[in-house]
Amino acid sequence: MTQSIINSTIKPFKATAYHNGEFVPVTEQDLLGKWSVVFFYPADFTFVCPTELGDMADHYAKLQSMGVEVYSVSTDTHFTHKAWHDTSDTIKKINFPMLADPTGTISRNFGVMIEEEGLALRGTFVINPEGQVKVAEIHDLGIGRSAQELVRKIQAAQYVATHDGEVCPAKWQPGDETLAPSLDLVGKI
Q1: Which residues, including other chains, have CB under 8 Å from residue 124's CB and lie 6 or more apart?
Q2: 101-135 burial code (b ≥16 CB/10 A, e <16)
Q3: What is the pLDDT along the chain (189 residues), one digit of tens a residue?
Q4: Of the listed 5, 49, 98, 136, which one is catalytic?
Q5: What keywords are annotated for this sequence in UniProt (predicted)?
Q6: What is the DSSP letter of 22?
Q7: Do the beta carbons of residue 19 and residue 96 sit within 8 Å?
Q8: 168 in active site
Q9: φ and ψ at 12, to 5 degrees?
Q10: 9, 61, 73, 176: most buried, per Cβ within 10 A?
Q11: Measured between alpha carbons, how far is 183 from 174 in angstroms, rounded to an integer?
C-alpha cells in the first residue's frame, strides 16, 4: 500500500450476502450509522478460515451489544457461502452477513486482494459510523486472528471517539486509565 487506509472513507461497493438463510444485498451505505467490522478471509471450505469465523461467531453477541455489525468477505459467491453454512457445524454458528466478492471489488477497495490467486488476504477493518477506517490489520494466509483482541481494539476505538483529547495506551481495557497527550506529559511515560 502506498497510502494508509486509516481515516480513509470506505469506497462504494455492491454485494450479495448470505445472511439468516437468505440472499440479501449489501452496499457501503449499510455500514454507515454504526460501527462495523469488515473481516476478509481467503476462501470457504478451507482450514484456518473456519477457525476464525467460528471465533468471530462466538464473539458476535458481545460485538452486537457494543453496537457493532460484522461483515465477513471472501471472493467466493453467495451460493458457496450458503453451501458452506449448510454443511459445516462451525459455520452454522454464523449470524452475521457473509458477503460474496467474486469480482474482487471489495477486496481491492481495502487493499487485500491477491491478484494472482483471486483470493483476499486475512484483513480486518474497523469502520466508524461515519464510514472511516479506524483499525486496519492484514495477515498472511497462514496466520489466524483473535476476535477477543478485536473486541478490545473496538472498545478502544469507541472510547477515543467519545472522549476528545484522550488516547488508550498499550493493553488498555475498559475501566483502565487513559492518557491525555500534552506538553507536560512529554518524556514522563
Answers
A1: 37, 38, 39, 40, 135, 136, 137, 138, 145, 150
A2: beebebbebbbbbeeeeebbbbbbbbbbeebebbb
A3: 457 999 999 999 999 999 999 999 999 999 999 999 999 999 999 999 999 999 999 999 999 999 999 999 999 999 999 999 999 999 999 999 999 999 999 999 999 999 999 999 999 999 999 999 999 999 999 999 999 999 999 999 999 999 999 999 999 999 999 988 887 778 777
A4: 49
A5: Antioxidant, Cytoplasm, Disulfide bond, Oxidoreductase, Peroxidase, Redox-active center
A6: E
A7: yes
A8: no
A9: -60, 145
A10: 73
A11: 25
CA-based end-to-end distance of the chain: 32
Q: Which three cell numbers stand for residue 12?
A: 462504494
Kindly state the DSSP code that residue 8 receives in the 8-state scheme: P
Instruction: Name the pTM for this structure.
Output: 0.94
- In angstroms, the CA 107 to CA 66 distance is 26
Cβ atoms 126, 151 nearer than 8 A = no
**Residue 69 near residue 38 (C-beta atoms within 8 A):** no
Helix (H, G, I), strand (E, B) or coil at 161: helix
Phi-psi region of 86 (alpha: psi -120 to 50; beta: other; left: phi over 0): alpha
